[in-house]
Design a protein that fits this description.
211 residues; alpha/beta; seven-stranded mixed beta sheet
Amino acid sequence: MRYRPISPTALADELTARIDSLTQRRRIAVAVDGADGATGTAELADALAGPLRLLGRPAVRVPARGFLRPASLRFEHGKRNPDARYTDWLDLGGLRREVLDPLAEDGTGEVLPALWDPERDRATRLPRVPVPERGVVLVDGEFLLGAGLAFDLVVHLWLSPAALRRRVPEDAAWVLPAYERYEEEVDPSALADVVVRVDDPRHPAVYEPEA
Protein backbone atom coordinates (compact mmCIF):
# COMPACT_ATOMS: atom_id res chain seq x y z
CA MET A 1 0.00 0.00 0.00
CA ARG A 2 1.26 3.46 -0.86
CA TYR A 3 1.02 6.26 1.68
CA ARG A 4 1.86 9.94 1.22
CA PRO A 5 3.35 11.63 4.30
CA ILE A 6 1.59 14.81 5.34
CA SER A 7 1.62 17.15 8.33
CA PRO A 8 -1.42 17.28 10.64
CA THR A 9 -2.08 20.87 9.53
CA ALA A 10 -1.89 20.02 5.83
CA LEU A 11 -4.14 17.00 6.43
CA ALA A 12 -6.79 19.21 8.01
CA ASP A 13 -6.46 21.67 5.11
CA GLU A 14 -6.86 18.91 2.49
CA LEU A 15 -9.87 17.41 4.21
CA THR A 16 -11.47 20.82 4.67
CA ALA A 17 -11.13 21.50 0.94
CA ARG A 18 -12.52 18.05 0.13
CA ILE A 19 -15.52 18.59 2.38
CA ASP A 20 -16.11 22.08 1.01
CA SER A 21 -16.31 20.61 -2.50
CA LEU A 22 -19.31 18.47 -1.53
CA THR A 23 -22.32 20.36 -2.79
CA GLN A 24 -24.68 17.54 -3.77
CA ARG A 25 -26.89 18.13 -0.72
CA ARG A 26 -27.90 21.19 1.28
CA ARG A 27 -26.47 19.62 4.44
CA ILE A 28 -23.86 16.91 4.61
CA ALA A 29 -22.55 14.40 7.14
CA VAL A 30 -18.89 13.47 7.49
CA ALA A 31 -17.60 10.53 9.53
CA VAL A 32 -14.18 10.36 11.14
CA ASP A 33 -13.84 6.67 11.97
CA GLY A 34 -11.18 4.95 14.04
CA ALA A 35 -10.37 3.06 17.21
CA ASP A 36 -11.67 5.00 20.18
CA GLY A 37 -8.98 6.77 22.18
CA ALA A 38 -6.17 5.43 19.99
CA THR A 39 -6.46 7.18 16.64
CA GLY A 40 -7.41 10.77 17.42
CA THR A 41 -10.80 10.85 15.71
CA ALA A 42 -12.15 13.57 17.99
CA GLU A 43 -9.05 15.71 17.57
CA LEU A 44 -9.25 15.54 13.78
CA ALA A 45 -12.97 16.32 13.75
CA ASP A 46 -12.32 19.30 16.01
CA ALA A 47 -9.52 20.46 13.70
CA LEU A 48 -11.93 20.49 10.75
CA ALA A 49 -14.75 22.44 12.39
CA GLY A 50 -13.03 25.84 12.61
CA PRO A 51 -11.66 25.98 9.04
CA LEU A 52 -15.03 24.87 7.66
CA ARG A 53 -16.77 27.71 9.48
CA LEU A 54 -14.27 30.18 8.01
CA LEU A 55 -15.32 28.94 4.56
CA GLY A 56 -18.96 29.64 5.34
CA ARG A 57 -19.73 25.99 6.09
CA PRO A 58 -21.36 25.90 9.55
CA ALA A 59 -20.02 22.85 11.39
CA VAL A 60 -21.78 20.83 14.09
CA ARG A 61 -19.81 18.28 16.11
CA VAL A 62 -21.49 15.01 17.06
CA PRO A 63 -19.29 12.52 18.95
CA ALA A 64 -20.62 9.00 18.47
CA ARG A 65 -19.89 8.45 22.16
CA GLY A 66 -23.04 10.47 22.81
CA PHE A 67 -24.98 7.66 21.15
CA LEU A 68 -23.86 4.73 23.24
CA ARG A 69 -26.66 2.50 24.45
CA PRO A 70 -27.66 2.31 28.14
CA ALA A 71 -25.33 0.33 30.40
CA SER A 72 -27.94 -2.41 30.87
CA LEU A 73 -27.68 -3.16 27.15
CA ARG A 74 -23.97 -2.48 26.65
CA PHE A 75 -22.91 -4.67 29.55
CA GLU A 76 -25.49 -7.43 29.23
CA HIS A 77 -22.68 -9.89 28.43
CA GLY A 78 -20.10 -8.31 30.72
CA LYS A 79 -18.20 -5.04 30.76
CA ARG A 80 -15.23 -6.44 28.84
CA ASN A 81 -16.86 -8.45 26.10
CA PRO A 82 -15.26 -7.54 22.74
CA ASP A 83 -18.15 -8.91 20.68
CA ALA A 84 -20.61 -6.77 22.64
CA ARG A 85 -18.35 -3.74 22.17
CA TYR A 86 -18.49 -4.35 18.42
CA THR A 87 -22.20 -5.06 18.01
CA ASP A 88 -24.07 -3.75 21.06
CA TRP A 89 -22.49 -0.55 22.34
CA LEU A 90 -23.32 1.98 19.64
CA ASP A 91 -26.97 2.94 19.15
CA LEU A 92 -26.97 2.89 15.36
CA GLY A 93 -30.71 3.47 15.19
CA GLY A 94 -30.49 6.53 17.40
CA LEU A 95 -27.59 7.96 15.42
CA ARG A 96 -29.47 7.43 12.19
CA ARG A 97 -32.76 8.81 13.50
CA GLU A 98 -31.44 11.83 15.43
CA VAL A 99 -28.49 12.89 13.27
CA LEU A 100 -28.45 11.49 9.75
CA ASP A 101 -32.12 11.33 8.79
CA PRO A 102 -32.71 15.03 9.64
CA LEU A 103 -30.04 15.94 7.06
CA ALA A 104 -32.01 14.37 4.21
CA GLU A 105 -33.63 16.70 1.70
CA ASP A 106 -37.00 16.09 3.35
CA GLY A 107 -35.55 16.13 6.87
CA THR A 108 -36.01 18.71 9.60
CA GLY A 109 -32.42 19.99 9.41
CA GLU A 110 -32.15 19.77 13.20
CA VAL A 111 -29.83 17.24 14.83
CA LEU A 112 -29.35 15.99 18.37
CA PRO A 113 -25.67 16.38 19.37
CA ALA A 114 -25.92 13.59 21.96
CA LEU A 115 -28.67 11.19 23.00
CA TRP A 116 -27.21 9.37 26.00
CA ASP A 117 -24.70 10.31 28.70
CA PRO A 118 -22.67 7.12 29.28
CA GLU A 119 -21.06 8.46 32.46
CA ARG A 120 -24.37 9.19 34.20
CA ASP A 121 -26.18 6.49 32.22
CA ARG A 122 -29.17 8.61 31.42
CA ALA A 123 -30.63 10.64 28.55
CA THR A 124 -28.86 13.93 27.90
CA ARG A 125 -32.06 15.88 27.20
CA LEU A 126 -30.06 18.26 25.03
CA PRO A 127 -31.92 20.57 22.64
CA ARG A 128 -31.74 19.91 18.93
CA VAL A 129 -29.28 22.00 16.95
CA PRO A 130 -30.37 23.51 13.61
CA VAL A 131 -27.95 22.84 10.77
CA PRO A 132 -28.08 25.71 8.25
CA GLU A 133 -27.85 25.17 4.52
CA ARG A 134 -24.26 24.32 3.51
CA GLY A 135 -23.84 23.01 7.03
CA VAL A 136 -21.60 20.05 7.87
CA VAL A 137 -22.16 17.55 10.66
CA LEU A 138 -18.89 15.97 11.83
CA VAL A 139 -19.37 12.59 13.51
CA ASP A 140 -16.37 10.93 15.15
CA GLY A 141 -16.17 7.48 16.67
CA GLU A 142 -15.52 3.81 16.08
CA PHE A 143 -17.30 1.11 14.05
CA LEU A 144 -19.12 3.69 11.92
CA LEU A 145 -18.74 1.78 8.66
CA GLY A 146 -20.54 -1.28 7.39
CA ALA A 147 -23.85 -0.47 9.07
CA GLY A 148 -25.47 1.49 6.25
CA LEU A 149 -25.11 4.91 7.87
CA ALA A 150 -25.63 7.63 5.25
CA PHE A 151 -22.42 9.66 5.37
CA ASP A 152 -21.41 11.87 2.45
CA LEU A 153 -17.70 11.45 3.20
CA VAL A 154 -15.87 8.98 5.42
CA VAL A 155 -12.35 9.42 6.75
CA HIS A 156 -10.89 6.27 8.32
CA LEU A 157 -7.92 6.61 10.66
CA TRP A 158 -5.95 3.39 10.36
CA LEU A 159 -3.36 1.89 12.68
CA SER A 160 -1.12 -1.04 11.90
CA PRO A 161 -1.84 -3.99 14.22
CA ALA A 162 1.40 -3.40 16.14
CA ALA A 163 0.68 0.31 16.57
CA LEU A 164 -2.89 -0.43 17.65
CA ARG A 165 -1.64 -2.77 20.37
CA ARG A 166 0.77 -0.09 21.56
CA ARG A 167 -1.78 2.71 21.56
CA VAL A 168 -4.60 0.88 23.33
CA PRO A 169 -4.05 1.09 27.12
CA GLU A 170 -3.20 -2.20 28.81
CA ASP A 171 -6.40 -2.19 30.85
CA ALA A 172 -8.40 -1.84 27.61
CA ALA A 173 -6.59 -4.57 25.66
CA TRP A 174 -9.72 -6.71 25.89
CA VAL A 175 -11.20 -4.58 23.07
CA LEU A 176 -8.53 -5.57 20.51
CA PRO A 177 -10.51 -8.58 19.17
CA ALA A 178 -13.37 -6.18 18.37
CA TYR A 179 -11.07 -4.06 16.20
CA GLU A 180 -9.71 -7.20 14.53
CA ARG A 181 -13.25 -8.33 13.77
CA TYR A 182 -14.08 -4.90 12.31
CA GLU A 183 -11.06 -5.13 10.01
CA GLU A 184 -11.91 -8.65 8.88
CA GLU A 185 -15.68 -8.30 8.48
CA VAL A 186 -16.04 -4.70 7.29
CA ASP A 187 -12.61 -3.77 5.89
CA PRO A 188 -13.13 -0.07 6.65
CA SER A 189 -10.13 0.98 4.57
CA ALA A 190 -11.90 -0.35 1.47
CA LEU A 191 -15.14 1.50 2.25
CA ALA A 192 -13.74 4.86 3.37
CA ASP A 193 -13.28 7.78 0.98
CA VAL A 194 -10.04 8.79 2.68
CA VAL A 195 -7.70 6.52 4.64
CA VAL A 196 -5.05 8.04 6.90
CA ARG A 197 -2.36 6.00 8.60
CA VAL A 198 -1.79 7.36 12.10
CA ASP A 199 0.82 5.04 13.60
CA ASP A 200 2.59 8.26 14.61
CA PRO A 201 -0.07 10.98 15.05
CA ARG A 202 2.58 13.66 14.56
CA HIS A 203 3.35 12.26 11.11
CA PRO A 204 0.18 10.97 9.44
CA ALA A 205 0.15 9.58 5.92
CA VAL A 206 -2.68 9.51 3.38
CA TYR A 207 -3.31 6.32 1.43
CA GLU A 208 -3.05 6.78 -2.32
CA PRO A 209 -4.34 3.94 -4.52
CA GLU A 210 -2.00 2.66 -7.18
CA ALA A 211 -2.69 4.24 -10.57
